[in-house]
Write a structure and sequence with these properties.
- The complex is a heterodimer of chains A (about 400) and B (about 290).
- Chain A has 21 helices and no strands.
- With about 400 residues, chain A is mostly helical.
- Chain A is elongated and about 115 Å long.
- In chain A, α1 crosses α2, α13 crosses α14 and α16 crosses α17.
- Among the domains of chain A are: about 80 residues, no CATH class; about 50 residues, no CATH class.
- With about 290 residues, chain B is an all-alpha fold.
- Chain B has one domain: Transmembrane di-heme cytochromes, Chain C (Fumarate Reductase Cytochrome B subunit).
- A three-stranded antiparallel sheet of chain B has the order 2-1-3.
- In chain B, α2 packs parallel to α13.
- Chain B is globular and about 55 Å long.
- The N terminus of chain B is likely disordered.
- The chains are: A mainly alpha (about 400), B mainly alpha (about 290).
- Chains A and B meet through α18 and α21 of A and α1, α2, α3, α4 and α5 of B.
Chain lengths: ~400, ~290
């Protein structure tokens, strides 16, 4: 009924204006008279319906249909209208996207993140798929798919992120300022971490994390690791080397305390080996006891400084304080303990070397002597028994 | 004089299995050994886990019993019990030897202190091993038993002291230089390993697993041994007992059935745990 009257109106207007260019269609009265049925589908079964109420309350609600569907001026319109070009308005975003890892528009149309353009709302609206709290789920619809991860040789980062301290803050606590995917990767101009312009490129990471963690970043830049990175040392650690990128866990948690030392040890191999000889390490390895000193309990975490720097917690003048944090009553003699002593190195630790040598010689000589003694005894006892020399009663 | 070993060897099979029994260890001594081996097994198990903290079995076992906190708790608890037992023993030795003027504590045939006969017995024993001489006629404590005793005694002092130095490191730092705090871990660890390897191989075989005792010498559990066993093992002590006329005072009843069964269960359990720990220690030491 309504449809036929619209047709009549259109026909009437066209006739009235004769050869004049087609007038813009009016969403409400013209297009929505057909497409206003949200269940409407094209021949391929694709939804081409628009919910008028949702469209009007969307951020595009004031636009006319052919502001976007530019090739439709009249009715009847082509069966296959041209794809909508969002960049005709969203120029900057489109430019960013063009150079990004998501540049192939067929695989990543705007709507894959922003949702249906007819119901699109501002990103500050909790309904938006790009609202900060919704972003992990939105990105995760692809990046949480194992098949997709396998296809592009990407780590399946969604699960890691969701369980991370950032994921927990966003998902469980609804903390808007917590890092979501876009906080580190950007939104439209996402670049591979191998691209030097990328916010996740190795040397840019401290700045990226530092946009939120300003204080920590300042400490890091002042420490040996930050300085080494700034000086161009490619093997010096950045934030993600110790904290990981997506699966970041609470640094004071047991799990992080358990996993952190081998991370330091992957570069500081000699220090790691000598650490493993000590009680500090032995305690830690067996689990359930995480209080023992880990690298950063003594060396500091972000502002690592050499012992020669008087500000370092391992500077000789600070050792009583540093050790005393765990060992109440630590004195000047106590802190002469060497947490990285090497009993196998005669030059560095002669006293320890000779003590270990003595203990090993003692062990070897006692065991060798008695092993010989016992073996001979066993052989002789065997002969004696065969000869009939019994024990004369047993076991009581 | 006929070789006493030969005499016994011929006479033994004809004698009835059950005969007179003599007391070798008092109840207090048996309790001391029980406390010693119980705490030692726990100390050895927990100590090995700390020493070889990187090995799979150590990590799995430690996690199963509640992680390192539990391991360290058991280690310290047993250390305290063993220290207490050691102090009670030392106090008893001095009380008996010094204040009660008991004979044979610090010297003489019944003493644990080594003497010239032990040297001769050791050499004689080796000659016997090689078929070059008669079996030595042992006294109350043979030289290897004295070695076991003093090895434990020395081990108690060394392992105990180094252990407490680590436990109360800031306190010990008042008397010890800083490098000594590094040294005590090396000493504790190596001496502990020596004790474990020695007890679970040498002591087990010498005392329990060699053919004359196999599978277990029960005298440390029951305190009693038969006259034949006594005469055969320590003819010198047996002879001295008869000469001194003290046989009657040492005669005791046969060990009750329940005690033998109980001792077997406890003893075999201890030996089984010990041998398991020995295998684990050796595999961790050589394989890593």
């Amino acid at each position: 009924m309504k449809t036929s009257s619209s047709f009549s109106l259109t026909l009437f207007t066209s006739v009235l204006l004769l050869a004049a260019p087609a007038q813009p269609l009016h969403a409400d009265v013209d297009c929505l008279s057909c497409h206003g049925d949200p269940t409407m589908q094209d021949a391929n079964g694709k939804s081409i319906g628009v919910d008028p109420a949702k469209f009007h309350s969307s951020i595009h609600g004031t636009l006319k249909c052919n502001d976007c569907h530019k090739d439709i001026h009249d009715y009847p319109h082509p069966d296959h209208p041209a794809p909508v070009q969002c960049e005709s308005c969203h120029t900057d975003e489109a430019a960013g996207l063009a150079g990004s890892v998501h540049a192939k528009v067929n695989d990543h149309p705007c709507t894959s993140c922003h949702g249906n353009a007819h119901v699109i709302v501002t990103k500050t609206d909790p309904q938006s798929p790009v609202y900060p709290l919704n972003i992990p789920k939105t990105c995760g619809s692809c990046h949480g798919d194992p098949a997709m991860a396998k296809k592009y040789h990407l780590p399946n980062v969604y699960a890691l992120f969701i369980d991370s301290i950032h994921g927990f803050a966003l998902g469980k606590e609804g903390l808007l300022v917590a890092a979501n995917c876009t906080s580190c990767h950007g939104s439209h101009k996402i670049l591979s971490h191998t691209d030097p312009r990328s916010s996740t490129y190795r040397t840019n990471i401290s700045a990226t994390c530092g946009t939120c963690h300003v204080g920590i970043n300042a400490q890091y830049q002042a420490g040996v690791h930050g300085k080494a990175v700034a000086a161009g040392n490619p093997s010096a650690p950045v934030c993600t080397d110790c904290h990981t990128a997506h699966g970041i866990i609470e640094p004071t948690s047991s799990d992080f305390r358990m996993q952190s030392t081998p991370i330091c040890g992957s570069c500081h191999r000699d220090k790691f080996n000598t650490y493993r000889d000590t009680f500090h390490s032995q305690l830690g390895l067996l689990g359930g006891y995480v209080e023992t000193a880990r690298c950063w309990d003594c060396h500091g975490a972000h502002d690592v400084l050499p012992a020669s720097d008087p500000r370092s917690p391992i500077a000789p003048a600070n050792l009583v304080t540093t050790c005393g944090r765990c060992h109440a009553g630590a004195n000047a003699s106590f802190v002469q303990y060497q947490p990285h002593a090497n009993a196998r190195n005669r030059r560095l630790n002669p006293a320890l070397y000779y003590i270990r040598l003595f203990m090993n010689l003692l062990l070897a000589s006692v065991l060798t002597f008695f092993l010989l003694h016992t073996v001979l005894w066993l052989i002789r006892s065997n002969f004696a028994r065969k000869g009939g020399a019994a024990n004369g009663g047993k076991h009581a | 004089m006929p070789d006493p070993t030969e005499t016994v060897a011929i006479a033994a099979p004809e004698k009835p299995v059950v005969s007179r029994y003599f007391l070798r260890f008092t109840l207090a001594q048996r309790y001391l050994h029980a406390v010693l081996f119980t705490t030692f097994l726990v100390l050895a198990a927990t100590g090995l886990m700390m020493r070889f903290s990187g090995s799979i079995w150590a990590i799995r076992f430690a996690r199963a019993v509640g992680g390192f906190g539990a391991i360290l708790f058991f280690h310290k608890f047993c250390a305290l019990v063993l220290t207490l037992a050691f102090l009670i023993h030392v106090r008893e030795i001095f009380a008996r030897g010094l204040f009660k003027h008991e004979k044979g504590i610090f010297w003489g045939p019944t003493s644990m202190v080594g003497n010239w006969k032990d040297v001769k017995d050791l050499l004689g024993h080796f000659r016997w091993f090689l078929g070059l001489g008669p079996k030595p006629r042992f006294e109350r404590y043979a030289y290897w038993e004295k070695f076991d005793y003093w090895a434990v005694f020395w081990g108690m002092v060394v392992i105990g002291f180094s252990g407490y130095a680590m436990w109360f490191a800031p306190f010990f730092a008042h008397f010890l230089p800083g490098w000594a705090l590094n040294a005590v871990l090396v000493i504790h660890s190596e001496e502990g390993l020596l004790a474990i390897l020695f007890i679970f191989s040498i002591h087990f075989v010498n005392t329990h697993l060699r053919p004359d005792s196999f599978p277990m010498d029960m005298v440390i559990f029951t305190g009693r041994e038969s006259e034949e066993e006594f005469k055969n093992r320590r003819p010198k002590e047996y002879e001295r007992m008869l000469i001194e006329g003290k046989a009657a005072a040492r005669i005791t009843d046969a060990p009750p059935r329940w005690l033998i069964n109980f001792s077997r269960v406890v003893g075999f359990t201890a030996i089984l745990i010990g041998l398991t720990l020995l295998v684990l220690a050796l595999s961790a030491y050589f394989v890593g």
